[in-house]
Amino acid sequence: MTPADYDFLRRLLKERSGLDLSADKQYLVESRLAPLTRRAGLAGIPELVVKMKGGAEALIKDVVEAMTTNETFFFRDKVPFDHLSGTVLPALLSARASRRHLRIWSAASSTGQEPYSIAMCLKEKAVELAGWRIEIVATDLSQQVLEKSKAGIYSQFEVQRGLPIQLLVKHFKQIGELWQINPDIRSMVQYRQLNLLQDFSHLGRFDVVFCRNVLIYFDQETKVSIFERIAKMMEPDGMLMLGAAETVVGMTDAFRPYPERRGLYQPNPARGARPGFGAMQPQLRVVAAR
């Protein structure tokens, strides 16, 4: 791959997906795209670039999908799901007692392990949530990974990564060497294709947003824009979950850290709350995220 080919791919990926590759990531592009060129019957990445420059939209889509399919696993990093079960759900169960409705968004949901982990957490609180309407919306740029997510079929390796054995036995059925998550869990998640660079206000308002380990690949301006737009879609007492290495501190004042809960944030009331929700807003002191 020539430097000119790499520059073209960097520009295209940033424009189409927000992925901001540094100059030293050529090896990553080559490793991700080599299988794609072989499947397409092309001699290599230079020929792939020529086809893309000629307007081969299907190839462009395949390249974006190949470069934006990121690693995931069940209950990844564990802490966010502890926050969900121990902090977020108890607070929202109290605040939403009158309307008995929760909406949760898993952004950049990849092959489904995150939204299904969320669904299993909610299933463990079936008694408290009896009679509630729960919506889990999972979105991703890649149609390919969304199809895998909908099927809910995982290899032995995939279910061994982060999934407690008791939940595997409880919520999965073994099919040969594979495992399929049970229909009651699959039915809790709605999957939609979505590019975070584009308008996503049509998704509606959310009580909880998981947006983990995706914005780290974007430049600062894009991150700020996405945070600002997510904040507008959240209830004033809603909760935003970020990845372990992510923060909004020093980037935007649309959110503030939740006290003593690393990676957990709430919309900043100083930015203005919608009328009628003030009573739901807990009094929180602002401290640094841990």
Q: What's a quick, concise take on this entry?
A:
This protein is α/β, with parallel strands linked by helices and 290 residues long. The chain contains 11 helices and 10 strands.
Characterization of the model:
- The chain has 11 helices and 10 strands.
- It is an alpha/beta fold and 290 residues long.
- It has a 7-stranded mixed beta sheet, sandwiched between helices. It has a 3-stranded antiparallel beta sheet with strand order 3-5-4.
- Helix 2 (26-39) crosses helix 4 and helix 5 (79-95) crosses helix 6.
- The longest helix is centred in the first third of the chain and has 17 residues, at 79-95.
- The relative contact order is 0.12.
Attribute tags:
disordered C terminus; seven-stranded mixed beta sheet; Chemotaxis Receptor Methyltransferase Cher, domain 1; 17% strand; three-stranded antiparallel beta sheet; Rossmann fold; 2 domains
